[in-house]
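Throughout this chapter, every protein is written as a compact record of paired, labelled lines. The reader may check this reading against the record printed directly beneath this paragraph:
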Amino acid sequence: MDGLIYGVCALATAISAAKRLYYTRKRRNQAAYQIAHRARVSAFIACFFGSLLAIPTVAEAVDRLMNCNEVSSLASDLAAVIFWASLQVLIVDWTHSRSHVQAGVAVRLFAVCCVVAAMIWEFHMADTAHTELSTAYARSADVRLYLLTYLGFTAVAGLEIGAFSTGLAIAAWQQRRAAATGLSIAAAGGIFGVAHALSQSAYIIADRTGHAWPLSVENAVSPALAGLSIICVATGLALATIGYNISPKGASSAV
């Protein structure tokens, strides 16, 4: 099931990245929202590679090629972090005043650099020769720390995407309902991302206390939530773009 879910996500994000790259290059001479356009391309490219590396057969092939256990999991998780961070930058460019955009972007870039550095260090410290970076090995302190670092960032970023996208959807509802609908779906994607992070985090904590639910349930629920998050974000942003492009003449487009 993981292969199917992440395969669909890889396909969806590849198409989204190609389309956004085309429109970004087409609008490269337009000054408005250039940061958002580039961040969106970065988000979908990162998500494509992250989804691809999350497919079990691809992950195994990469690990064998690199001769390093779990390097595919690290790369996939780092790609997910870049995906969420890029969406945060996109939201900052959409919602902040021009005088505050650079500061908002800088704060989020600093945060993501710290998270990436921490994850790489925790990967280095983990005994990946005998463990996997998954909830199946949550009883390992190193694996647990790595996962909670990744999931904590995912939860915070997903919450920010969900909250700000909801605010944008409410603001756009009266004049641009198609765009507002797309933003609402993107907001749902952020919430699914939070649910994914909370599901895995809750399992890790429950396992630590000896009250975890069956691992098979967690292994079914968590990828489904991650897949829904990615698909909703990709679909929602696409609909928002269409909605703004058919908005009344003279209206500026942020997407």
About this structure: Helices lie at 2-26, 34-54, 56-66, 71-95, 98-125, 141-172, 177-209, 215-245. The two ends are 33 Å apart (CA to CA). The mean pLDDT is 88.
